[in-house]
Design goal:
The complex is a heterodimer of chains A (416) and B (247). Chain A is an alpha+beta fold and 416 residues long. Chain A is 56% helix and 17% strand. Classes of the chains: A alpha+beta (416), B mainly beta (247). Chains A and B meet through strand 6 and strand 7 of A and loops of B.
């Protein structure tokens, strides 16, 4: 066995060009498989991160009555004690921000666009969401003058509004009566979430309370408290972390409905689970292509050496020795190629994770998948890729070797 | 949609009920307006002209209403022929004959402008009695065209009043509102209306054509005109049933 190993390794090195070609084919296949899987996982993570960072937050606290009637964004079902809710969040060492969500119509006096407006505490909001970092023109509300608003960049473009322009905002008050007022556009946000760019409207809480005709001060209207959680290492870890934080907050705020990101992004996650089997199709195609490449190069390698097999048989090697030799050669090739593939895959992965791919050019749909796509480490995928490479090499080497080993030495020597 | 204009009209008119007494206190003035435009029931043919950026669309309809809580409208213009609206209290249903489908208008949709206009479905559901929701003050006298008018300012007494403040120019001889401005809580002027035509119906003066102008959108206006107006006529209650809506 030891001798056969030495011969196998020597043969592998002796046929340097074939070995390199086979190893490169394996490397390409396995590294593409690892990178592709990393990108798919990154897409899911990115979508959920965008939901948490720009629209829904990592955890949301509302009243059960509000959630039940959420389609009508009811202003009469806000949190009974928002200060206590924020204090409970702070007691967990988490940043929280109060918001009022209401329906508004934004107008330039010629065109009018309905939006789901968010009244925000500008400073606290910037600790929970990344909107303040997404201001591409003007300033976020925390550094703007009173009676200022921030608009999604596309919404502003649609209404032909720029920073400094007046915008007319119409909304129904808490008494269900129409109110309207003019505000100054302080800034424009451009985020990886198309719906924020197209319909984002942000106004300070105090100004919104005047527009909605609801009194300020302690106990003032707040429809939700949004909470940020530290970034978890993976999507599943983020969901587990959110569930744990929700359990702790439910104990502190028994009357409120507390929804972690796993619930908030439930529809996206359900879609992702539904598409999971379909998402495997391109991965399987990549594997099949690499398998074909590996098998092809190894078959060519073995068949080109049938006469060599005849010589080995003539020197007295048994069919079993021949099979074992070629199996070991396949194993050596598989180990080398798979190692190389995993190494290159990991390198591509690290580049994807560190630098990412800017999806801005591809962002046309309504799914929150624009922005920088970053990969996700997945050791399981690397292990699968490695084992796949080795097994395919073994199988690819063993089948022709068995056939060749059955040939008589004279037949093998005459093999063309 | 256009029917809702009809309903708005009815609501506006009903809210301006007045008596014919000559006294000039603001309460008396409003009472005389009420007497002119209040009714237990009304039947009419309506025409609504919506103009946006110089382009006009016309809607015609036959309408019947009982007080301010029940109304039924069937559109007769070719594009919308057979579309029917039924309003009962705070609910509004629309029947589309081509789809044989009924849609209930509620929630945020009730706050949307109808047919591209700035009159919302909720405007159509407004309470008719101004004196319940507003306190009135006689401000001054003015003229609208060549008509001498009392200028009456209504300020909301309750949070649920549709507008925080309304200013009415009331014809000093005929006691009908010739002009009205409607303000939001912020003080912003939301809408203005101008009465284009006042008709004599029986022993009362009745505004039969009113122009509504949104102050939140440039270059838009809606003119609502009623003809064949019959007031206080008997109306079968079955007129306001879902069966009639979808028949």
């Amino acid at each position: 066995m030891g001798t056969l190993w030495k011969i196998a390794v020597r043969n592998t090195l002796r046929h340097g060009r074939r070995t390199i070609i086979t190893a490169v084919v394996m490397m390409v296949g396995i590294s593409v498989f690892i990178s592709f899987d990393s990108m798919l996982a990154g897409l899911d993570r990115m979508a959920v991160d965008n939901i948490a960072d720009y629209t829904l937050s990592s955890l949301k606290i509302r009243t059960p009555a509000y959630v039940q009637d959420i389609q009508s964004t009811p202003l009469d079902k806000g949190l009974a004690h928002p200060e206590e809710t924020l204090a409970a969040v702070a007691a967990q060492g988490l940043p929280g921000a109060a918001r009022i969500r209401f329906v508004a119509r934004v107008s330039n006096y010629t065109d009018e666009i309905p939006v789901l407006a968010d009244a925000v505490d500008p400073s606290a909001d910037a600790r929970v969401f990344k909107l303040a970092q997404s201001v591409t023109a003007g300033a976020w509300l925390s550094s703007a003058a009173p009676r200022s608003v921030v608009l999604g960049a596309e919404l502003a473009r649609e209404l032909k509004l720029n920073v400094g322009d007046a915008v007319l905002v119409t909304a129904q008050t808490v008494h269900d009566v129409t109110n309207a007022d003019e505000y100054t556009v302080a800034g424009l946000v451009s985020t990886p979430v198309p719906e924020v760019n197209r319909g984002g409207f942000f106004i300070p809480l105090d100004d919104a309370r005047v527009l909605l005709d609801t009194p300020p001060g302690p106990g003032a209207l707040v429809t939700e408290v949004d909470v940020a959680l530290p970034r978890a290492s993976s999507l599943s870890a983020a969901i587990v972390q959110g569930d744990a934080a929700a359990r702790r907050l439910r104990a502190a705020l028994p009357g409120e409905q507390i929804d972690p990101i796993g619930s908030l992004a439930a529809s996206y996650l359900a879609l992702r689970n539904a598409k999971a089997s379909y998402a495997l199709i391109p991965v399987i195609i990549v594997l099949i292509i690499s398998a074909v490449g590996i098998v092809n190069t190894i078959l060519m390698s073995v068949y080109s050496r049938v006469r060599e097999i005849g010589v080995l048989r003539a020197y007295g090697m048994t069919s079993r020795d021949i099979r074992l030799l070629f199996t070991l050669e396949g194993l050596a090739l598989g180990l080398a190629g798979s190692s190389l593939g995993v190494a290159v895959g990991a390198l591509l992965d690290s580049l994807l994770i560190a630098g990412g791919i800017d999806l801005a050019a591809f962002s046309q749909g309504s799914l929150p998948i624009s922005g920088i796509l970053r990969g996700e480490w997945n050791p399981r995928t690397m292990l699968i890729g490695f084992i796949f490479g080795v097994v395919v090499s073994l199988v690819a080497a063993r089948i022709p070797a068995r056939r060749a080993a059955r040939l008589e030495p004279t037949e093998a020597l005459r093999f063309q | 949609m256009r029917l809702s204009y009809a309903v708005v009209m009815a609501v506006l008119l009903a809210g301006l009920a007045a008596s014919a007494a000559p006294a000039q206190s603001v309460d008396d003035i409003l009472s005389m307006v009420d007497a002119n435009v209040s009714y237990t029931s009304i039947r009419y043919s309506g025409r609504m002209e919506i103009t946006i950026a110089g382009e006009s669309r016309y809607k015609t309809m036959d309408a019947v209403a009982q007080g301010s809580s029940k109304a039924f409208v069937e559109f007769t213009n070719p594009e919308d022929r057979g579309v029917r609206y039924l309003k009962r209290d705070k609910n509004l249903w629309i029947y589309f004959p081509s789809e044989q489908d009924t849609v209930k208008i509620s929630g945020h949709l009730l706050k949307e402008g109808m047919m591209g206009s700035d009159v919302s479905y909720e405007d159509a559901l407004e309470s008719s009695d101004y004196r319940v929701k507003y306190s009135a003050a006689l401000k001054q006298e003015d003229t609208v065209g060549d008509r001498r008018c009392f200028v009456v300012e209504l300020s909301a007494k309750v949070d649920t009043a549709a507008y925080d403040r309304r200013v009415l120019w009331i014809d000093a001889e005929r006691y009908v509102s010739l002009k009205q401005e409607m303000y939001a809580k912020s003080g912003k002027l939301l809408k203005a209306s101008t009465t284009l035509m006042v008709e004599r119906i029986g022993d009362r003066w009745f505004p039969s054509s009113v122009e509504f102008v949104s102050k939140l959108r440039n270059n838009t206006k809606t003119v609502f005109t009623m003809s064949k107006v019959a007031l206080d006529v008997p109306v079968d209650d079955r007129q306001f049933s879902m069966a009639t809506l979808t028949k």
